[in-house]
Amino acid sequence: MGEWSEYFADFPEENPANWINGRFDPQAAALSRQREAAFEKADREGNAELRGMISTAKKKIKARSLLVTEDCPQCGLRTLNTYRISKDFFLCECQDCGLYGKGMTHEEALSQTAEALGDGLDWREEGSLF
User: Fold this and answer.
1) β-pairing, 89-94 with 100-103?
2) Which neighbouring-strand residues pair with 70?
3) Which one, of 45, 44, 46, 18, lies nearest residue 31 by Cα?
């Protein structure tokens, strides 16, 4: 016995993809699939544009929220940025090794960052917490 695609080529009425609303209509089914693909493509492109806009907005907020740059507990370099995103949301991110932590206070964010030593956390790969 051949492949399913060969069977459906010989007997298109047996292919469930050729039925629309309970009736056999291969042309309408093909048109429906084309429209669906075009919609999904437009949706992906629109989502990519939105993600870019959100990313740009977050970068601007982080740039104006930089509180202090300190020594990173993991790599030892002075690259641990602490951001005060809001009144009660602090974020620490090392720009060199990627270690990160968050908290409601600066001290809590630093503590969470120090507790994550050796966990392999990297905000650049996993995405920022903000």
Assistant:
1) antiparallel
2) 80
3) 18
- Report CA dihedral (81, 84, 88, 94) to the nearest 10 degrees: -10
Please give the structure tokens belonging to residue 67. 């509180």
3-state secondary structure 49-65: HHHHHHHHHHHHHHHHH
Q: What is the number of residues in the chain? A: 130
Rounded Cα distance, 48 and 36, in Å: 18
Residues 6+ apart with CB under 8 A from 48: none
Q: How far apart are CA 63 and CA 100, in angstroms?
A: 17
Contact (Cβ atoms closer than 8 angstroms) between residue 97 and residue 72: yes
Rounded to 5 degrees, what angle do the CA atoms 67, 72, 78 make?
Answer: 70
User: CA–CA separation, 10 vs 93, rounded Å?
Assistant: 61
Indicate yes or no: pTM above 0.70. no
With beta carbons less than 8 A apart as the criterion, state whether 79 and 53 touch.
no
Q: What is the pLDDT of residues 35-58, one digit of tens each?
A: 999 999 998 888 999 989 988 998
